[in-house]
Amino acid sequence: MSLRSAVASRNLLYLLSLKELRTRYKKSIMGWAWSLLNPLTQMVIFSIIFLKVFIQIPPTGHPSGIKNFPLFFLCGLLPFNFFSISVGVAIGNVQGGAGLIKKVRFPHEHLVYSVVIAQFVTMLIEFSVLSVALIIGGNMVLPWLVPLLVILVFMTLFTTGVALTFAAANVFFHDVNYLWGILAQLLFYATPIIYDANNPRIPRSLRLIAAHSPTGSFITAVRNVMYDLTMPSLRDFAVIIVYSLSAFAFGTWVFTRLSPRFAEEM
Fold it and tell me: pTM of the full predicted structure?
């Protein structure tokens, strides 16, 4: 179905997104606390490895002057988790919606959009908590929340495009789901989450990948406004816009071309 028909069925998208939010931690004692506990657990583990095992000096924010590895780590982890989890869940959501796809005529892309929207809401909650932690740590991030939101909106477009592409491909080749699990792990270490992309001790090839890859560009921009308290350059913003619009356009094209064959393949 076309993007126009998807917009026309926005009420369905709202209901699917609400279902994603309501059922995500259904029958869980801790509920939405899990969305905060998971990144906090990763933060503790990598902080111990970075600060105690390898005894490294935390990166210093410029010009903020903050020097706190756990906060540095979370500024990169939260947007990456949004991207990684959204794509992974969207792949399964389309395949898992086989019964609905075979019986009801509706925009299949809503199965992807609803996942991304639900994860976006989760990320906003996580960033709200991180903002409080940064303020306590000495970073007055409140004036920087608007540019942060702009960056996250473009990252959402990019994530949606990637999710549409992988979810559509997985209907025909189920290996895609397993491939994404491996690719997400590789991207985690190729993206400047646990290290500073400007650190001269990092191999030059890795620094180039970390600084100019799509995920690296978005994470660096988020860290600029939240940890460094500085605006990304116009060039960096242009790169982000190109990545997001290109990925969204390509993903929409792929999904639109393949979705009419979903029912017969499932």
Answer: 0.91
